[in-house]
Amino acid sequence: MTPRILITGASRGMGLELSKQYVAAGARVFAAARTPHQGELLRLAEKHPKQVSLITLDVTNEEHLPAAVAAVRAQVDGLDVLINNAGMNLRGQSLGGYTRAVMLETLHTNAVAPVLIGQAFLGLLRKGSRPRLVQISSQVGSFSWNTGGRSPLYAASKAALNMYTRCISHESPDLITVVVHPGWVQTDMGGPSAPLPVTDAVQALRTLIDGLSLADNGHFLNYDGRPHPW
Ligand SMILES: NC(=O)c1ccc[n+]([C@@H]2O[C@H](COP(=O)([O-])OP(=O)(O)OC[C@H]3O[C@@H](n4cnc5c(N)ncnc54)[C@H](OP(=O)(O)O)[C@@H]3O)[C@@H](O)[C@H]2O)c1
Prior knowledge:
By secondary structure, this protein is an alpha/beta fold. The chain has helices at 13-24, 39-47, 64-73, 100-120, 122-126, 152-171, 198-210, and strands at 4-7, 28-33, 52-56, 81-84, 132-136, 176-181, 220-222. The longest helix has 21 residues, at 100-120.
């Protein structure tokens, strides 16, 4: 059966590459983005109209979510994979300069939204085949890895995502819910010094996601499949 996959933050970076590679592999892709009807993502959808549906979803806009769920439900009766990939990292934030607005926006985008999106698509996931809820986190959200206090607001938001996800894995033992560190990747966020080309990172992520089983539920994994320390 053709896998049905929803990807958030599909406009660029890993989200766009995930969309491209899943399309090339024959999947049915719901590519969600703040402004999906433009640029490379629009071209992908125009080239593969039977495989790609563009979904308008600003992950922090609660009004978008019911419409996004309805749009997917109108086209498929189940989802096999939901990849909460959208994320933000405003650089240059440090003690003395913290503001409530940036702290809350970062938490909202990186931690609260993936939980609410997972919750909203739970019904469709439960009708999917080997349903997988994949939360793209980061190693900087790991307490044991990030001992140097790197990227405080971003790190705290990913740590929150990690714990939310660990709890969800207990609340929904019928789903395969995982947190994944995608590697340090050459995207706008990762920058040009990152060691991993986005094509390689996404290839590895796809292999990881393809191989997930219920035994992985609640795990924090590196993009290459190795367990990641919390
Ligand atoms: N790159 C790395 O080295 C690295 C390492 C660890 C973890 N990660 C994680 O991997 C994921 C993808 O990162 P990336 O490197 O591909 O980053 P990126 O190139 O900066 O792309 C970020 C994506 O998230 C979207 N986004 C941000 N806020 C959004 C919102 N409110 N609603 C909808 N979409 C939103 C952006 O959409 P717009 O185009 O509309 O802005 C864009 O598509 C993120 O969760 C990131 O934290 C990345």
